[in-house]
Specification:
FAD/NAD(P)-binding domain; 5-stranded mixed barrel; globular; alpha/beta; 20 strands; nucleotide-binding; GSHR/TRXR-like; glutathione-disulfide reductase (NADPH) activity; Enolase-like, domain 1; single chain
């Protein structure tokens, strides 16, 4: 069967949040003929195996922690409250399917043609799409956006395939009794925290002595200490040598850590050791688009690649922010520039807030303390910090109280706030508002002029001495 030939102004390869936002703006707002291609589920990583189902699961873990804390507030549960993992995951998955449908409906509303299949470059302007029914569509496009996202890495050791990745976390139909999570980034920390809060015996294997190593040292030290206080088993300076299948769903992980060599029988092994761009099937080489040493597409701040009509955004490119709102914002700005006549439209990549849904939550914007000292020099930096016990914990015994720690990093005579790092209850919601202030160039004096809201944890941020 001869392939169907199509032409368009804008071909978007990848149906994640960033690609869809760009396609919809190009078509719905500016009238460009746009085609979007996706070979899995619409919404990409975030909607299907990332932020959305993660936050729902974190909510469940947070409720479990609240139930545990309730006794200190006078609630007396006469019987245990077991968590029904299976019912929970079925409800969560149904919600995600509804979102997939909403994404497809939004494409139709903005007149974006949607092809469900796998795209492969034939030449720099032409992409072949293998559809689900075995047929092919050839698309010739004036401009092409590569927004295919990434996929989790798996290590090259014997038996590694017996583990799952963050994708597989959302496919678990029953709750593991004992799990090993390998990794030190936010995905590993979040998933280990959720497993533990929901009652799974959790072992977290990290290569160094702390995790979240791109975050401010205060965050690293405090969250590691809190995870240890809560009873997670953290294996520091660790490496893994092989995994064995013991049958009946059991595995044996062989490892080395700061205590020497060991092995462990587990129900589930989760690899969270980083992600790689999803470029294996795209035949990108034929376009001569440049990539860095990790395979990410090189782009400038305008999302341009080295090939005039080919652009990239999101997790596939080398901008360093693997965050859904970043991809959405970059995608919309790109369409403003390409089709909306806004020649200088581009995303400002400075002061982008980010959150880790750990236990407790972590929020960060701007420079870490080491980064600020390197950029401005020790003499130009002033640090304000506060560590305290949030009022939420006032009714609890000392060994049940979680930490709250805040840090402001200021520079220059005007003490401009160039970094803010917070951990504790409510940090995700707190950071959004303060992020606006820092993006606007707030100084410590601006913070001080804001009257505190009492009693809150966030008031500490406007009363630091």
């Amino acid at each position: 069967m001869a392939p169907v030939n199509k032409e368009c102004d804008y071909l978007v390869i990848g149906g994640g949040s960033g690609g869809l936002a760009s396609a919809r703006r190009a078509s719905g707002m500016y009238g460009a003929k746009a085609i979007a291609v996706e070979n899995k589920r619409l919404g990409g990583t975030c909607v299907n195996v990332g932020c959305v189902p993660k936050k729902i699961t974190w909510n469940a873990a947070n409720i479990a922690e609240t139930l545990k804390d309730a006794k200190a507030y006078g609630f007396d549960f006469k019987q245990g409250l077991p968590f029904d993992w299976t019912t929970f995951t079925q409800k969560r998955d149904a919600y995600i399917r509804r979102l997939n449908g909403i994404y497809e409906k939004n494409l139709k509303n903005d007149k974006v043609e949607y092809l469900h299949g796998t795209a492969t470059f034939v030449d720099p302007h032409t992409v072949k799409v293998a559809l689900d029914d075995g047929s092919e569509v050839s698309v010739n496009a004036k401009k092409i956006l590569v927004a295919v996202g990434g996929h989790p890495n798996v290590p090259d050791i014997p038996g590694a395939e017996l583990g799952i990745t963050s994708d597989g976390f959302f496919e678990l139909q029953t709750q593991p009794k004992k799990v090993a999570v390998v990794g030190a980034g936010y995905i590993a920390v979040e998933m280990a925290g959720m497993f533990h809060a929901l009652g799974t015996e959790t072992h977290l294997f990290i290569r160094h002595d702390t995790f979240l190593r791109t975050f401010d040292p205060m965050i690293q030290e405090k969250v590691v200490a809190e995870y240890e206080r809560q009873g997670l088993h953290i294996h520091k300076q660790s490496s893994q040598s092989k995994v064995e299948d013991l049958g009946n769903g059991k595995k044996k992980l062989h490892y080395k850590d700061s205590n020497g060599e060991g092995s462990m029988e587990i129900d589930t092994l989760l690899w969270a050791i980083g992600r790689a761009p999803e470029l294996e099937k795209l035949n990108l080489g034929i376009t001569k688009v440049a990539q860095n040493d990790k395979g990410h597409i090189k782009t400038d701040e305008y999302q341009n690649t080295n090939v005039d009509h080919i652009y990239a955004l999101g997790d596939v490119c080398d901008r360093g922010y693997e965050l859904t709102p970043v991809a959405i914002a970059a995608g919309r700005k790109l369409s403003d520039r390409l089709f909306g006549g806004q020649s200088d439209a581009h995303l400002d990549y400075s002061n982008i807030p980010s959150v880790v849904f750990a236990h407790p939550e972590v929020g960060s914007i701007g420079l870490t303390e080491p980064e600020a000292r390197e950029k401005f020099g020790d003499d130009s930096i002033k640090i304000y910090s506060s560590s305290f016990t949030a009022m939420y914990y006032s009714m609890m015994e000392q060994d049940e109280k979680g930490p709250t720690s805040y840090k402001l990093i200021c520079t220059g005579k005007e003490e401009k706030v160039v970094g803010m790092h917070i951990l504790g209850v409510g940090s995700a919601e707190i950071l959004q508002g303060f992020g606006v202030a820092i993006k606007m160039g707030a100084t410590k004096a601006d913070f001080d002029r804001c009257v505190a809201i009492h009693p809150t944890s966030a008031e500490e941020l406007v009363t630091m001495k």
